[in-house]
Fold each of these.
Amino acid sequence: MRFRPRAFREEPEINFIPLIDVLLVILIFLMVTTTYSRFAELQINLPTADASKQQESRDQIDIAVDAQGRYSINHTPVTFGGATAFSEALRRAAGDTKDPVIVISADANSPHQSVINVMEAARIAGYGRITFTTQAGTK
């Protein structure tokens, strides 16, 4: 016994609105619960060693640090009595120059803290242009 005629058959349909709602809820859930890690990066420009002749500059202060941690400013030995005292010595060496280039020549076996001391003294003195000398390696 057939109660319905064949011509009145319903076609199945897919309703996309509940599917879109579920996908949006999942997307919002993932966006809220995801943690994004941000890595702190330092922009470092590493110096390159070049065998060319060093440029002579009148507005530079040469600071040498030897393996025992002794300092010299423009080939004059200086004792390190703290960063503020060393910054005063840097100011005296600079004279009338407003922003000299601090050229640090450190021995390969010098303590790392010795170089940091020079950099800290230059910061206290207000000098921001610091560079390091390098030596061309042997082949």
Amino acid sequence: MNLDPGGGVRRRHGSEHPHPVDVHVGARVRLRRTTLGMSQEKLGDAIGLTFQQVQKYERGTNRIGASRLYELSRVLDVPVSFFFEELSPGTAAAPVGSGLSEPPAQPFGDAAGGNRERLELVRVFQRISDATLRRRLFDLVKAIANGYFRA
């Protein structure tokens, strides 16, 4: 990434589109933040940024450096690898400006888009203290989603 003479950031390869990996990582930040019920402002305060900067990270507009990603993992209580989970090899290899820079589908929905029941389900699930029970419930839900149980 290079600074342009006007003080903005110019993307590599001359594209104004965010890289698909940056979009994916940003979506994972947003997923975890909303799962925890944390506002962009609260996350920004915790890592010394404005909520606008958090927005840019979440959209993939601004890249997240390694030290900032580590800081985010600590504040959001996930390993750094969480931000790269579900990243397909095709997305990782996609060239900038390829049209593949759309945000990935959110596995637990978008609270702003009316999927609050999904977010609530995740919060309730996280309150199950028995790890074995949590895993069995997870396996059951996966089996239902994969069509193993037909109504």
Amino acid sequence: MSETNPERGWLARRVLPGGDEPDPRFTLANERTFLAWVRTSLAFLAGGLALEAFAFESFPDPLRKALAVFLVALGMLISAGAAVRWVSVESSMRHGRPLPLPITVPLVGLGVAAGAAAVILVIAFS
């Protein structure tokens, strides 16, 4: 083990086996992207909680609960997808492979579209 190439910790070796250390700027950019996805996830979680807590007069009870659960579940999926994406990107950088496509992008797009459609339907038919 040399001073310029210190040994990685046991967790790093377990989660990201093999490969070469990428430029720290790329690893830090990957972390910032992960945190942006986590913020998006928290927004969906907060939206679901707010819908359930404060929109009881605006939406019928079963629909409000379904939309709230949908938003919270979408937030959970985005959070899990962010973690998987971080590991995939980090591994790709370490092994010199192309970066994987972000699966969370269509998930968020479809989730927002579905939620907006449900709200439009409620507004149009109430």
